Amino acid sequence: MTSTLYKFFAPHQLHWLKKSLIALCPAVNSPLPFDHDIAQFFPDVTGSLTEDEYLQLMREKYEHLPDQAKQLVDFNYFLEKSADKRHTIEKMAGAQKTNNPVARAGQYKTVGYMSLTGDLTTVRHWHHYADQHRGYAIEFDTIHDYFSAPSYKDNPQLLRPIIYSDLRPLQTDEVLFPAVFHKPVVYKDEKELRLARPLVVADKTFVDNSGQKRYYCKLPLRSIRSITVGCRMSTAIRNELVHFVKHEMALKPTVLRECRLDPDAYQLHFVDIP
Length: 274
Known about the structure:
By secondary structure, the chain is of the alpha+beta class. It folds into 2 domains: about 5-35 and about 110-270, no CATH class; about 50-95, no CATH class. It is built from 8 helices and 16 strands. Strands 1-5-14-15-16 form a 5-stranded mixed β-sheet, with helices on both faces. The protein starts with a strand and ends with a strand.
């Protein structure tokens, strides 16, 4: 894994940088609907169970009945009365076989993540994540304990690259929070990595105007190697950012750079700010 990673910010997020705080995104608030505990489509699985499998399933359901109910109804009667519901029973059985992370979405309510990338040059990053080039990007030293340590505030953390696939990851007991580290192939050019932590480690929380709870962790400014200014950043925000970097002792010797557009190609160049 590279020792340098980047994160993009909109201009209003300079407020949090000046407070040495960085957002921890709750996994359940991911902008991807694939990660949400919402309605799912399951194909019609009627007839997918053999008679032996169906009888085994019904016997298991019968055994889970309260003892009082089993004293009043024998298995054959239970089976007969359930015959009209076989379609629904088999469909539910098929849904329960689904081993994707949405099936256990409740566990994602406790975890958050920070999105990072190894690529500063992708125009899409600047357009989408830095408010159409009005924001900035921070280069982090990922050898710093803040990123590389196996724990943060006595809780586990994990920095891993995203796996891109159009199939959902399997949910197993050996892999924690697989949906946090998987995205559809359409996002592959983002070259994303995520740092996952329990939300309980957040140093600051509040509820925003939309009613969503926000989480922020303290950010050691010495983990910052450079800050790059977007080519459309306003003069006021640029002056504020440059002044902060040049006068904050914890940011020395952070490099300041700015984006410049290539006159011929859809690409960016970076020039040091003296």
